[in-house]
Amino acid sequence: MENSQGSVWVLAEQIDCQILGVSFQLIGQARKLADELGTSVESVLLGDHIQEQARLLIAAGADKVYLGNSPQLEFYQPEIYCEMIVNLARERQPAIMLIGSTFMGRELAPLVAARLQTGLTAHCIDLVLDENKILDAKIPAYGGLLSIMCPQKRPQMATVAQGVFPKPELDETRTGEIIPLDVPVDISRRIQTLEVVREATDGVALESAPVVVAGGAGAGDPEGWSKIADLARALNAALGSTRPAVDEGWADLETMIGQSGKVVSPELYIGVGLSGEQQHMVGINNAQVMVAINNDAKSPVFEQVDYGIVDDCREFVPALIKKIKEYQEKKVTC
Amino acid sequence: MIDFTFTEEQEMFRKAASEFAETSVAPHVAEMEKTGEVSDEVVKALGEAEMMALTIPEDFGGLGLGYTARMIALEEISRISVATAMMLQVFALGIEPIVQSGSDELKKKYLPALAKGERLSTTAVTEATGGSDPTGIRTSYKKDGDDFIVNGRKCFITNSHIADTINILTKSEDDPKLFCVFTIDRDMDGWRATHKEHKVGMRGCNTGELAFENLRIPKSQLLGEEGKGLRVSMAAIGDVGRGGMVGCALGLQVACLEESVKFANERILYGKPISALPAIQNKLAEMKIELEAGRLLAYRAAALQDKGQRSSNEFAVAKYFTCEAAQKAAKMAVDIHGGYGCMEEYAVTRFLRDSFVLGPSAGTSDIMKVIIGRWVLA
Amino acid sequence: MLNIIVCVKAVPDPKEACNIKIDPHSKTLMRCDVPLVVNPLDKNAMEAALQLKEQFDVHISVLSMGPPEAGNIVKECLALGADQGFLLCDPAFGGADAYATAFTLAKGIEKIGAYDVIICGMASSDGSTEWVGPEIAAILNIPVVTMVKEIVESDRDRWKVKASLENGYRLMQVKLPAVFTVTRDLNTPRTLSFSGIIKARTKEITRWAISDLGVPAEAVGLKGSPTIVSELSSTESKREAEIIAGTREEKAEFLVQKLADVGVL
Predict the structure, then answer these.
(1) Contact C194 B19 (CB under 8 A)
(2) Fold of the A8-180 domain
(3) Domain B231-377 maps to which CATH number in 1.10.150.130, 1.20.140.10, 1.10.1370.30, 2.60.40.1930?
(4) Nearest by CB: C197 against B12, B20, B53
(5) pLDDT digits (tens, 9 = 90+) for B197-248
(6) DSSP character string of B176-224
C-alpha cells in the first residue's frame, strides 16, 4: 500500500503520558499535506504506558503510529530517542517530518536532521506545498515572510510552535495501525536524563488567556517591567514578553510570545513598549482587539494594531492602571 | 593623508566604556540627582573598571593608555552621567602631576593605589583670590628644616571630600614668585575638607573647600623643583584638566542630541511627530554639526597630547567650542521638549543644569578666549 | 587541562536590527548600516567558559564562521578572556544554512583538535534557529544538552547540568566531550575591560579558508545547504491603528472605555 511518495511524519511528544496539543495540531496539518500528496500520515510516539494515547493520534488523523513503549522511554532520552527515529526514518524514508517547537523538539529535531543530513526549518508559521509538491515552510523575517524549502534532501523537516495550527476534531471511529518499536539494546549511554522537574507557574497561562499584556524593550529597566506586570495583574491578564525583554532578563523565556516562543489567540492583546517586530507579532494569532503603547509614533507596531497610544509606557502604564482601578471601584459601588 | 578613523582597539575601548556606563553608572543617576551626594557604588565601579588607571604608566600599576582612550571613556561616561565623568576627569587631574613631576618614591607610594581606585585624588589650585590666575592664590608655605608648613584655604575643589591624595598649589610666604605643589594625603594632620557646595548641576560630583592649618609636609612630598610649582600645576590643568572637560562636554552633546531625537519622534503635533517639522530638524542638525566639529577638535588635541606634544592651546579651543556647544545643545534639547523640558523627570532638565557647570570648570569660555588670544598673538 | 571551544556568531546589533526591512517592491533587503556584534546568547557561552577558567586549568578557544569583519567579534571574545581565536572565513562558506554552518564549524573544531567542551549560545538573534549547537554534536558524534540554565557539576570527564523545559528543568548527566547550548539564565555576561582589550593585543586570531579545512566546496556554504530560501514576500497588515490623541489622562480614559466595551473590565 506504500505510495511512491514517502509519507508525512509527525514526531509526537508526551509529557506524563499525555500527548501534547501541538502534536495533535501537527497531525491535523500533516493530514492536509498528505491528502494533497496522496500519501499517508505516520506518527512516532515514544514513552511509557502510552498504548491508549497512541489511538488518539489515529483519531486525530494518523494512519500509522510507530509506538515505542518502555520504561526506558518514559522521559526524553536524547540518544535512544534519536537513534530509534533515525533508524526508522532510514528504513521508511518519509517525505516530510514535523516536530513541535517544544524544548524536546528543539533539541531532537536538529539531532535527527543532522544525522539524516537533511534540512530543518525552524518555527514555521505556515506549511504548504508548492506546485512541485515541495514543502514550503514559511517563517517571518525582516518584516516579511521567507519561504524555506528543502528541494533535494529527505525528509523535509520543520518545527512548529503550539497554537500555529488548529487542533483537529478527534474521530474515534478512524482506524489505523499501531506498530510497536523495539528499544535498541546497544545504545551508548553518554548522556542520561536523571530527573525531570516541573514547577508550578504563577499567573495566568498565556496560551489560553483571554487577555494578554505583552511587554518589550521599551520597559527600560526592571522597574519599568514591573509596571507592565502590574498592568497585567490589574486586567487579570497573562503577561507575555518579546525576545529583547527576555534578553534583558526581565522576563522568563517561558513568557516569550512569537516565532520561537508561544503563539496566543486572546480576545484582547495589549503590546507595551514593543516595536511590533515580525518575530513577536506572528505569535499573536487571531486576536480580536489589539492595542499598542509605544513612545515612537513611527513604530511599525502601529501598523499592526487597532488602537495606538503614543506615549512613554513607563509613564503611561501607571496612569492607565490608576484609571482602571478607578473604573473598577466605580463599577463595584454602582 | 590624515587618518581620522579610530583604531579597532579604540572602538573596542569605546564599547567597553559605553557598556560600563550603561550597566554600572546609569542605575545610580537618579539617586545622585536626588541626594546630590557621591555614589560610593559608582566610585567603586569606576575603580573596578580600571577607569582611574587609564593615564597611569604600566610600571606603576596603570594601563598607560593615554589621552585618546581617556577622551573616549569620558565621552561615553558623560553621555550617561556628566557628574560621574567630571569626578573621573578630576581623578586624572589629581594623578597627572604625580605622573609628570613626582619622584619615583612618590609614584611608587601613590600611583598603584590610585590606579586601583583604592586612593582617590584631586588637584587643588583655585582659591577665592585666584583660579584662572593662579598667582593670586594666598595659601602659603614656609620652610621649617626639611619640612614645609602650609596655611590657607582652597575653594571650588572637585572631589574635595572624597579625595585622600591631593596635590595643592602653594605660594612662598617670603617670595610671591615662588610656588610649590605638594602631594598631601589623609594620614597628615593639619588639613580638612570643610564646606560642601550645592551646585546647580553635576549633582553626585562633590565640590567643596579645603582648609590647611599649620599643615606639616615632608620634603619628599614635593612635586617638581622647589619654587617651580606653577609650572607643575599648570601643565596638568592646561592639558589634562581642560581635556577632561572636553570629554565631559562631548558626552553631554551626544546625550542632548539622542534625547532630542527620541522625544521628537515621540511627540505628536498636527498629527505627526515633531521631528517632521523643519524648525525641529534645524535644531537637531545644528546639534549634530557642533557634535561632529567638537569631536574633531577634541580628538585632534588628544592625539597631540598622546604624541607628547603641548596641547593646552588646542584644548583651549576644544574646550571653548564643546562647552559652548553643550550649553547650546542642552538649551535646544529643553526647547524641543517644550513643557516637558521644565519637568525634572525629563533628563534634559539635568542636561541643562549640568551644562552650566561645564563652563567655569577648568576655566570659563572667556578665559579660553584669553588663552587663545595670547596664542594667536604669540 | 580542560579545552573549551566557544562558538560565537557575528550578528547585526539587535538594538538596531529592526531597521532591516524588506523593500515591498523589489523584495530585497533594505539594510541600513547595522554594526555586527557578538550574538547576545554567545556572550553567556563565553561567560560560562570564563567562569570555569577562573576555577580550573582551562584553555578557551573562540571559533566563528563569518565575513572578515567577524574578526572583530572574535577579538572582542579574546578581550573578554579567551586564549585563542579562530575565524572560518571564505566566500565559499557564504549562504550557509544551519546544517552547512554546523558542518563547517565541526570541521573547524576537528582541525583545532583538542576539545572537551563545546559551548554555544542557545540561538542566534538574527536567524533564530537553534540548530547549530546540536547539529555540531551530531556531526562530531558527541552528546549535546541544549538550553542549559545551570552547570551543577563540572568534573573533568562528566558534567551534570540543568536544562530548561516547559515549566521546569531536566537534570542531565553527560560524559565529555560534549556540546552545551546555554540560555541567558545561566549567568550574567561580563562586560569588556580596558585591560582585557590590552591583553588581547598579543592573542592571535587564526583564519582558515576552505582549503585549510580540506572539505569540498559542495559541502559548505550555499552549495552544502539542504535548505534554500526561495522567496521573500512582504506581509500586508490587516490592521491600521487609530492613534489616540489627548493628554495622558485622556488617553488612559479612552483606553479604559475601550477595555470596558470589549468586556475586559
Answers:
(1) no
(2) Rossmann fold (3.40.50)
(3) 1.20.140.10
(4) B12
(5) 999 999 999 999 999 999 999 999 999 999 999 999 988 888 899 999 999 9
(6) TT-EEEEEEETTSSSEEEEEEP--SS-TTS-EEEEEEEEEEEEGGGEEE
